[in-house]
Write a structure and sequence with these properties.
The structure holds two protein chains of two kinds. Chain A is 55% helix and 18% strand. Chain A is an alpha+beta fold. The longest helix of chain A is centred in the last third of the chain and has 44 residues. By secondary structure, chain B is of the alpha/beta class. Chain B is 34% helix and 29% strand. In chain B, the strands form two sheets. Chain B has a six-stranded mixed sheet with strand order 6-7-8-3-9-10, with helices on both faces. In chain B, strand 4 and strand 5 form a beta hairpin. The longest helix of chain B is centred in the last third of the chain and has 16 residues. The chains are: A alpha+beta, B alpha/beta. Chains A and B meet through helix 2, helix 11, helix 12 and helix 14 of A and helix 2 and helix 3 of B.
């Protein structure tokens, strides 16, 4: 068999057979090529959307929920509706104690601030944070460190800035760590800088993080908490946690249990599941469409080989009279089928790859990118290629069988 | 070499069947030059197809080279054809996109002979039929006589036991007919068993033994041109 594959005659015969039907072969090849091309491009695009999504949300723990306080919308226990609510540090303790399956409960304070460095200044979002924030929303540090426990205890005047702020407040090539910037007229030492995250709220031009305790003192927030980020342990349903937390908070703040507007929340887990579901659906659809198109293309190859075999009936008869065994005739036709599908597959994969490169170059660059790094995994390509070879072999069996089903004597009689 | 006993063959036609060969007995020894004569419908082509292992028979016995032929599947038939038989057809049946040399070498390909080796052998046989200088030509570039010579070379290339020729001169003019028959005679003189099917009297007369077939039975079997002198 190996000898057969590497025999010049084998390939010479495939070549001469293809040469006889150039146009038809080309059209057929395009059929299969289109199938695998669609598969590669669509899978690549789906991957691009997924990558982009991961870029946006990737820094967050996916099973997290954000909770903040609003105003009541129902009167309860003597309070009128419209009562303003504020989360307290004591709420956090109760949540930690009462609700099972919590991994982190991270309180945050938030405001706007004017930051000045020499002659440069800007309006930024300022956050009071605990070191645990790094666990919930991964900080991609470029220089230095994030806020640590010592900063919290000693209420240090230190800050961690986003790369965007560095660009606005510092000259190029200046090392920011250890320098001081003025935030609302108070000097803070810069201890760290992180790479821009896609979301996170706050100021439009970037975020500054200072120790939570420092924020409380400087901005006179007492025991208040702006909002909190809660993550669940693996295996605990974040939607259930969200409901439990809100019910507990309503209880603590004497709010009507059915008051839906008293506490706001954003369930990241649920949002991510939605998008992930969409991407999974898209990938499934891609496979379905791609494979279906492939099958259609492969059938076309079977069809053209059937025509070729009919046209070569006499030649096949001659060969058999000269001593060609049925299997020798069959394998030639099957190989032709596999060869055509493989060529078509290779062309489809290459053209699909090129289109992905073009998509990446045009749509995949910059912050507003729709797709980032649209790629198809090598195993996926291998699976697709393998599917093609298997389908090519199976479909080749049909014309191969036809070729040997005609008795040589009848084949010879044919004119 | 070829021994046939009480051979019967019929083809189904519609609901009935056409009895083509009605109990043939024929014995062809090694080295004979035999022609089967008969008009169309006499069953001569059917006989050739059975002898050539292209078709099976219904009843009776057929020995090829001493081997009883029965229950052949396509694979065994192909091996036996390749080993023992060389075919020459009326319409030459050369493969039109292969050169003369490649056509001659084809049976060797199915024997698994390597490319160099089989081209060497094929060239020897092309030389034998006087077409060495035409080796690289395609069949479309050859005359009818030349095509049949190539076909004869192809029939000989595996060094078979019997050469079966089905109306080998049917598509040729009288001059070429003569030269092709001379070639077959020469092959026979070298010891090859040659089995010719024809409906032309003058072609049959060039052979050593004429078997006349009519309506599926042998009506005469006579030796001619006794090789008395060398």
């Amino acid at each position: 068999m190996i000898k057969f594959l590497f025999d010049t005659d084998t390939w010479q015969e495939i070549y001469s057979s293809i040469r006889k039907n150039k146009t038809r072969t080309a059209i057929t090849i395009i059929g299969v090529m289109w199938g695998i091309f669609l598969l590669v491009v669509l899978l690549g695009a789906a991957k691009g959307v997924e990558n982009n999504f991961n870029k946006l949300f990737g820094s967050f723990a996916t099973n997290s929920v954000f909770v903040w306080a609003q105003q009541t919308s129902k009167p309860f226990k003597g309070f009128q509706e419209g009562k303003a609510l504020t989360l307290k540090m004591s709420d956090l303790e109760s949540i930690k104690k009462e609700i099972p399956g919590l991994e982190f409960v991270v309180p945050r304070l938030q405001d706007q601030a004017l930051a000045v460095n020499d002659f440069k200044s800007g309006n930024f979002g300022i956050f009071g944070d605990y070191p645990e924030l790094d666990e919930v929303q991964k900080m991609d540090m470029v220089y230095g460190r994030f806020i640590n426990q010592n900063d919290i205890i000693e209420k240090k005047k230190v800050c961690v800035i986003e790369e965007e702020i560095y660009k606005q407040l510092f000259d190029k090539d200046v090392q920011p760590i250890g320098t001081y910037i003025k935030i609302n007229n108070i000097n803070y030492k810069v201890v760290g800088m992180y790479k821009k995250g896609q979301i996170g709220g706050g100021g439009p031009q970037g975020n500054i993080h200072i120790p939570f305790t420092t924020f409380q003192q400087v901005y006179n927030r007492g025991d208040d908490v702006g909002w909190m980020m809660i993550t669940g342990k693996p295996g605990f349903d974040i939607t259930q946690i969200e409901a439990d937390v809100k019910l507990l908070l309503k209880n603590l703040h004497k709010v009507h249990p059915e008051d839906e507007r008293a506490f706001g929340s954003f369930n990241l887990g649920k949002e991510i599941a939605k998008v992930t579901g969409f991407i999974t659906g898209m990938q499934f659809l891609t496979w379905f469409v791609g494979i279906a198109t492939l099958i259609a293309g492969v059938f076309a190859i079977g069809n053209i080989l059937l025509i070729t075999v009919k046209e070569r009936t006499k030649e096949i008869g001659i060969r058999r009279a000269l001593g060609a065994k049925p299997w020798e005739i069959k394998r030639q036709i099957i190989l032709e089928s596999v060869f055509l599908t493989s060529i078509a597959g290779a062309l489809g994969i290459i053209s699909g790859g090129l289109v992905l490169m073009i998509i990446d170059a045009t749509l995949g660059k910059g912050d507003e990118a729709v797709l980032s790094n649209p790629t198809v995994d090598i195993p996926v390509i291998l699976i697709a290629a393998l599917t093609l070879v298997v389908l090519g072999t199976l479909i080749g069996l049909i014309p191969a069988h036809t070729a040997v089903s005609i008795r040589p004597i009848e084949a010879l009689r044919e004119e | 070499m070829i021994k046939i006993e009480k051979l019967h063959k019929s083809y189904p036609i519609g609901k009935g069947s056409l009895h083509v060969l009605k109990g043939l007995d024929l014995h062809i020894k090694e080295g004979e030059f035999v022609s089967i004569m008969g008009s169309s419908g006499s069953g001569k082509s059917t006989l050739l197809n059975i002898v050539g292992l292209l078709d099976g028979h219904d009843t009776g016995k057929y020995y090829l080279n001493g081997q009883l032929i029965e229950n052949l599947d396509e694979k065994k038939a192909a091996i036996l054809r390749n080993k023992f038989l060389g075919f020459v057809f009326q319409s030459f049946n050369l493969i039109n996109y292969k050169s003369a040399l490649e056509n001659v070498a084809l049976p060797l390909y199915y024997q698994g002979v390597g490319r160099k080796e089989r081209n060497k052998i094929a060239l020897q046989y092309l030389d034998k039929v006087g077409l060495k200088d035409r080796a690289e030509h395609l069949p479309s570039e050859l005359s009818g006589g030349e095509k049949q010579r190539v076909a004869i070379a192809r029939a000989l290339v595996t060094n078979p036991k019997v050469v079966l020729a089905d109306e080998p001169t049917g598509a040729l003019d009288s001059t070429t007919t003569h030269s092709v028959m001379e070639l077959l005679k020469e092959i026979n003189r070298e010891g090859m068993t040659v089995f010719v099917i024809t409906h032309e009297e003058d072609v049959a007369e060039e052979t050593d033994r004429i078997v006349r077939l009519k309506d599926g039975v042998i009506i005469s079997d006579e030796k001619v041109n006794k090789k008395v002198t060398i």
